Amino acid sequence: RGHAADVALRRRAITETMSASGASIIEQGDLEALGEGVARFAAAQWHCKKNEDRVHVSGPIPGLCDAVVQLYDSHGGKLAGQYCVGNMVPAIEEAFFSSPGNAKFSNDREALYNATNDTGFHPKLDIAITAAFEKIDVEVKRIDQSGTTAVVVLLKKHGPNGDVAVKCAWCGDSRAVMAKNFEYGAGGLVDLSSDHKPEVPSEQARIERHYKDIHGDNSFKSREAVGRRGDGNDGSPKGASPGGTQRRGNLDVEVTIGHKDHHFDEDAGEGEDTFGEMKGPSRSKSVKGNGQDANSGSRISYVGFYKDTKTGQALSKERVFSSSGESHGVSRSIGDRGAARACVATPDFKNTILSASGGGRIVIASDGVWDCYSSQKAMATIKGVSKVDTAAKKMCVAAREKREYGGFSMDDISVIVVDVGKWKPSSGGEGKQPGGCSCVVQ
After folding, report:
1. How far apart are CA 88 and CA 31, in angstroms?
2. How confident is the model over 373-391, as pLDDT tens digits?
3. Is this prediction's pTM over 0.85?
4. Which residues contact residue 208 at a Cβ distance below 8 angstroms, ignoring those fewer than 6 apart?
C-alpha cells in the first residue's frame, strides 16, 4: 500500500474518531414559541484547551421576539463570553423599556408584539440591542481583561401566514449564514453578518473616522492618503507601503493607518513624516507625539501588520495596535480592556424574513470554522444533512479536520444550526426529520 493510501486511511480513521467523540451537542430542542414543529436547533462544540467559546439558545423576550440565539468567541480568558450569556438578554430588555416612549409597553406586551415595522421587529429594538452591547462592554472591562466576539440572532413570528422574521446583531468575526429555502447555492446562501476585521475597507474607514472625530480631520492618515500604497505584489497586504515600520518586541509592524503627528522613533524631530521609517520602541517604551515627551507614557493606536524584517513579507493580516501595547485581530468586540478606542462594541444589524412556505437553515459559528472555510464551503459540508444535531456536529468535525491538516492552529469550534420551517428533504439527503423531532447522535 502506497504512502498516499496510508495517509488517506489514517486521515479517515482520525475523522471517524473525531466524529464519534470530539464534537459534542451542548444544547438542542424546539423553538416552541414560533409554533409547533416550526423551528428546531442544535448547538455543537469541539473545544481545544482554551475552551473559551460560549453558546446559548433561549425562548422569548416577551413582546420583542420569540427566541434568542447567542454565540460568543472569547479571547484572553473565558469570562467575557460567560458574562454575555448570562446578561445579554436581560440587558436588551432593560435597555428597551428604559428608553423614552417604550415604558408604556412594559405592562402591555401584546401591543408591543404587534408594534413592528417592515423588519418584523419594533423599530427601536436596534437601539436597545446596541445599548446592551455597549453596557456589557463597559461591565466586562471593569471586572476582567478578556474580550469576546458576539452574534445574537432574534427570531419572531411575522404576519398571519407563519413567516419568521430574523434579526442578526453582531460584533467581531464570528459569523451567521443562512440557506434560504434550504438552498445551498449562490442564490440561496445569505451572509447574515460580515466580519469586523482591521483589513476590511469599511472597518478601516470607520477606524479612521473614529480617530478624526477625536483628534481632528487631518490627524489620522492612511497610506492611500499620502500616496504610498503598495500593490500587494511584494507579499504584503494590498495597499501597504514598503518602509513605514515600527518595532514591536522582536517583530516589525508595517503601519497602514496612523496619527500624522506621532513619531515612533524616539530620536525623531518634530515634523518628520510619520509614514517614514518607524524603527522605534518596543511595547515597553513610550512614543513621542503631539508635543508629549517620551516619558509621558503616551503611545499611539494604529492599524498595521507584522512583517518579516529581512524580506518585508507579511506575517499576519492587519491588526489594531493599541496604546496599551496590545494588538487585536478584530476591530469590534465586547470587553478587551487593553484594546484601542477604535475597537468598539457597537453592533451591526441585518434583517430578513423567512417565508413559511420555504423556510431555511441558519448557521452561527465561531472563527474556528470561518478561519478555514468560506461561507459557501462551510455550508456545503452539511448540504443534504436533515437533522440539526447531525449537521452541527458534522460542521465541527469538518472544521477540526481542516485545521488539523490545513496548517491552521487549533481553536475552539462552535456551531449552532437552526432550521426554520417544515423540512423539505433534498435529493441525496439523509431522510426526513418530522416536525420538531430531534435526537442526539453520540
Report:
1. 19
2. 999 999 999 998 999 999 9
3. no
4. 220, 221, 222, 257
